[in-house]
Amino acid sequence: MANFNEKSKILNPEDIRRCLYRLTHEILEKTSDPKELVLIGIQTRGVHLACRIKEIIKELEKAEVPLGTLDITFYRDDLTAVGPAPLVKETAINFDITDKVVILIDDVLFSGRTIRAALDQIMDFGRPRRVELLVLVDRGHRELPIRADFVGKNIPTSDKEQVEVRLKEIDGKDEVVILEKSS
Questions:
Q1: What is the mean pLDDT of residues 161-172?
Q2: Are the CB atoms for 178 and 54 separated by under 8 Å?
Q3: What is the reported pLDDT for 31?
Q4: 59: domain range?
Q5: What total of structural domains would you count in the chain?
Q6: Could you count the other beta carbons within 10 Å of the beta carbon of residue 138?
């Protein structure tokens, strides 16, 4: 396992807050009625971002939007590479997604493989009218033809770098940093 050192901080807590408000406004501008929306966060940080967006929608529109969680572990195309005992978290979609606009939420878009797995899994729950992808960070390096509809920040990276999203719910602070492989 390679060691990484923090190279630079890309987003601070206020930047993240502003991004989430902007992204929420973009969702609401694109969707005529919040009752058409459902939010689904990909475990782990996507779930926390989805919770925050749900609260912003509630604040702005006085509307409750259903929130689900998705663990894509068993839908991965590299499950055998993950190891013999992958850590599986909760998938909970306790509402009908048929004919809804699903906003799929994740922290970082990289190769596109996580999103492909999430799309496969979502279809097990019904047939949405539309699925749109929201990510806090798009770092490039796609391996599949997948793009986000809503992007907080595009951060071009090299193969030697990683983007790490830290959220106060898990990490005790909000920030996005670039880590670089140490030699």
A1: 97
A2: no
A3: 93
A4: 4-27+35-76+88-181
A5: 1
A6: 22
DSSP 73: G
Helix axes of 45-61 and 13-30: crossing angle, nearest 10 degrees: 60
**Confidence at residue 3, expressed as pLDDT on a 0 to 100 scale:** 83
User: Could you tell me the pLDDT band of residue 151, with boundaries at 50, 70 and 90?
Assistant: very high
CB burial readout 83-120, b (16+ within 10 A) else e: eeeeeeeebebeeebeebbbbbbbbbbbebbbbbbbbe
Computed on alpha carbons and rounded to an integer, the radius of gyration of the chain in Å comes to 16
In a domain, 172, yes or no: yes
Domain at 120, CATH number: 3.40.50.2020
Does some domain include residue 67? yes
pLDDT top residue among 76 and 5: 5
Q: What is the model's pLDDT at position 1?
A: 55
Q: What are the pLDDT digits (tens) for 108-139?
A: 999 999 999 999 999 999 999 999 999 999 99
Residue 83 lies in a domain: no
Reduce the DSSP state of residue 170 to 3 states and report it. helix
Max Cα distance, the chain (Å)? 52
